[in-house]
Every structure is written in structure tokens, then in C-alpha cells.
Design a protein that fits this description.
Elements: H1 2-30, H2 39-51, E1 92-98, E2 101-110, E3 113-117, H3 118-125, E4 128-132, E5 137-142, E6 145-150, E7 155-158, E8 161-164, E9 170-172, E10 175-179, H4 180-186, E11 189-194, E12 199-204
Parallel strand pairs: 1-12
Antiparallel strand pairs: 1-2, 2-3, 3-10, 4-5, 5-6, 6-7, 7-8, 9-10, 11-12
Length: 205
């Protein structure tokens, strides 16, 4: 009799173990977001929350007198000039030109910077873009150059080197928006404003 119950208990233990493993496997499948398949993106998600605050400019910070901050140049310094005069004061379409090819792009003025969709600016500059929607991370690549930004963070990974952006990236209309200077400079372009054409001009650096 004792042997019988011992066998029953062993069988129950095996069944319960198998059910537990099956449940875990199902749970894992439900959270299998694309960005979690890439250890580097996981590390980015975890790390950028740790020391973003070190790059947040205090409200009373005095802008460096030896280096003026501009909306169209990424200095890679942890500072911003919110009083930068911008080409437009409200969100709207702007003409953009690259190699005399013109199109339009939606731009959002914010804190002295012009924010653009990572996906749209990639199209303008002939780059590839990838959005990891769950973590709101956008990856831009072109000719061996790589830029990774995350909505809600002012940290950018430029060719795997961490640098501060002038303001945080944002998430609008299912896209990560980042400063146009960051996207352009990281991918090898200079951006200027043509007041006569009312257009953003991109030129290779």
C-alpha cells in the first residue's frame, strides 16, 4: 500500500512540474516583444534611465558663454537654449531639401528645438529606421552609422557611444520624435534654414 501511494505522489509531482513549465513557456511567449530579442536594446532600456538626470540642465543653468547652443547643431553637451529662435512657432509642415530634392516633413517646435519623426527624417536622409513600439525606441542606420533614441529620454546612443541630446525625445502619432539636429548630425548631415525658400536644407558634412 505504501509503495502504491509513493508511486501516485511521484506521478503527481511530475505532472505538476510539467504544468508549471508549460505555464512559464506560455507566459514568456506573451511578452516576446521585438526589442527584448536584442540584448543591446535591453541594455539601452535599462541603462538610460539610470543617469539621464545627470544630463538634465537645471532650470537656472547659465548657458556656456564660450559655446552658444543652436537648434540646428548638435553639440553633444548636456545643455539647451530654450530661447533659440525657430523657423516656426507652431507644429506644422516644413519643406526640406536634400541634393535639390524637396519634400515636406511635419515638425514640432519644443523648448528651442525642432522635433521630427525618426521614421520620416530617415526617409528624407535615405536612412533605415526601426521602431520598437513597446519600449518606444527608434534605431536609425545609414552607411555604417547608427543612432538609437528612446522617447522620454535625453540619452542618445551614437555608434554605441552615449551622448546627451538637448531635450528629451517624445512619442507622437506612433513615432519617436527627436531634435532634427541630432538626427541629421548623427547621420552625417548639416542642417540649415533657408529663409527665402522657407526650407530646411540638408548637406553632407
Amino acid at each position: 500500500m505504501n509503495k502504491y501511494w509513493k508511486r501516485v505522489m511521484i506521478m503527481l509531482g511530475i505532472v505538476l512540474t510539467m504544468l508549471s513549465l508549460g505555464t512559464n513557456a506560455i507566459a514568456d511567449d506573451g511578452h516576446d516583444d521585438d526589442d527584448e530579442k536584442h540584448e543591446y536594446y535591453q541594455k539601452f532600456s535599462e541603462d538610460d534611465d539610470d543617469d539621464d538626470d545627470d544630463w538634465e540642465a537645471p532650470q537656472n543653468q547659465i548657458i556656456n558663454q564660450q559655446q552658444t547652443e543652436f537648434w540646428n547643431i548638435w553639440s553633444r553637451e548636456p545643455q539647451n537654449n530654450p530661447d533659440n529662435p525657430l523657423p516656426l512657432g507652431e507644429p506644422g509642415e516644413l519643406t526640406v531639401s536634400l541634393n535639390n530634392n524637396e519634400t515636406t516633413i511635419y515638425v514640432i517646435p519644443q523648448e528651442g528645438q525642432l522635433l521630427v519623426s525618426a521614421k520620416k527624417i530617415a526617409e528624407v536622409l535615405g536612412a533605415e529606421s526601426q521602431l520598437y513600439s513597446q519600449s518606444k525606441i527608434s534605431v536609425l542606420t545609414k552607411d555604417g552609422l547608427e543612432l538609437i533614441v528612446k522617447a522620454g529620454s535625453n540619452a542618445a546612443f551614437e555608434n554605441k557611444e552615449k551622448s546627451p541630446m538637448p531635450i528629451q525625445a517624445a512619442f507622437y502619432e506612433k513615432s519617436v520624435y527627436l531634435p532634427v539636429s541630432v538626427a541629421a548630425n548623427a547621420l552625417g548631415y548639416r542642417v540649415t534654414w533657408d529663409g527665402n525658400k522657407k526650407a530646411l536644407i540638408f548637406q553632407s558634412i
